[in-house]
Amino acid sequence: MDLSDSSTIQQIISLFSLLPSTSARLAACHQILDQLSPHEWRDAQVRINQRSFQRDILGESPPEVAVQIAQHLGLAELHVLQRVSRKWHRLLSSDLVRGTAYQQYTGCVGIHVAADQFIHYAKQRLRLERGLPVCKILDRDLPPPHDSNFDCLDYANGNYAWLENNTHIVVHDLRKRKVRRFCTENRDSLRDVRLSESMVVAISVRAYCHAWNLETGDHASFRIPALHFRAFVARGMKVALGFTYPSIAGDEYIIYWDMDSRVARNIGVAPNLVLIGLQSATNSLSTLHLERNNIVQGRGQLCHNERLRVVKHSLENHGPVDSLLSYILQLPVLAEFDWRVLTLHNISNDASGRLAVFSCEPPVSGVASTNPSYVVVATYNHKTDEMCLHGLSPKDTPYHPLCMAAVDRGLLYYVKNDRGKPVIWISEPASPISHRPAAAMDPGLPREATTRVYSYATRFALRGDREFVLMINENDVKVWGFGDTAISETAVPTATT
């Protein structure tokens, strides 16, 4: 290129830069491109491909923006994005992002989370999400329930409890393999066992609620008005029972009892109580109610419009109980109006009062096969103090009688009928794949020839949390461990089971 060509090019560039508007610049570009020969087009295309129009928006964002983004990511997604670049790893591994993610899953506010602590928590959470236990515990000291009474057994915080001879409660520590026994002074007949982190509770046939401190063995009891109740839960050193009998507090009420103070309180609640959530840290409780707002449409036709309402109650003072707030939970399966929602109380009781189960039926049509019923499960997480709904459609084929356990925030384990074989599946509504199998947790039960009747064991029960998941049937008790503390001399790696 000689000097005259260089001078001409500079004149063209100068004139182009003086064009007054974007439209004029685009018109000049288009006319120049139209003058190009084929080989010049190829050179222009190579030049365009060398120009990147991407920007690292996350890498250039302040930590506060990264925190907002991390709130919408799961732990697995967060781990994948940390590996994109060093800048992303530094930003998404910062104390601010780490603390926000930890608070979102655990409800712990204002605490510093070390990197090792967060990694340990995230690994265990991912194992729960994928159904990948670290071990399976073989302990012959865990008996199956007698006469299929699943109300007489419970699990909490690494302890498994069951009723023996109707008079003694046996509490087995799965970590230490230690056994403790509790009974009343007169060896009263007991029923409906509940476990918390700190105590074991049972109802006697004489309508007393008995509680024992797991650490000290101290015993206390209080009278209850009836043996029939809607809900029965224990958390920390507190107990709550929901009744539907008339009282001073109202038609439906909760007896709230604190073992530390030995004081019981009556709390009036809204009708159709289905679930109680105890929050011992904030001294409050949450209740879930099924609201029936049936309305009459044209031609006098009655249409169903049921809703689930959460009400939070404060128990800080000793006066009247205050309702802090209430809100509606959106049912996950109701795609249209006039669905009928029924509470399955017997299934809810089998789950030790930690969840509520509903049957959702669409409007009746002329063909019976076109009216499949759905199952909705409401769970309460005491760490985050929130309710979560899981929807099980007919294609998810949950095993009947329903068998499920809420093991962590937004995670529900349930037994699915896989063409006649009971298998464990996981429900996580917040995940893109909301239902998936726990392939590493094989119950070891044979497949039946028919999908309707299962003769090997007619009933199952699932119990569990972040540390252990138990599957109990009429023949044995299977235990899978997810935490590092679950590994003991009776544990074998799941890869060999």
TrEMBL record:
Pfam families recorded: F-box-like
Superkingdom in the source lineage: Eukaryota
Domain F-box residue range list: 55-105
SUPFAM superfamilies reported in the protein's UniProt record: F-box domain (SSF81383), Tricorn protease domain 2 (SSF69322)
Name of the protein in question: F-box domain protein
Species for this entry: Aspergillus heteromorphus CBS 117.55
Lineage: Eukaryota, Fungi, Dikarya, Ascomycota, Pezizomycotina
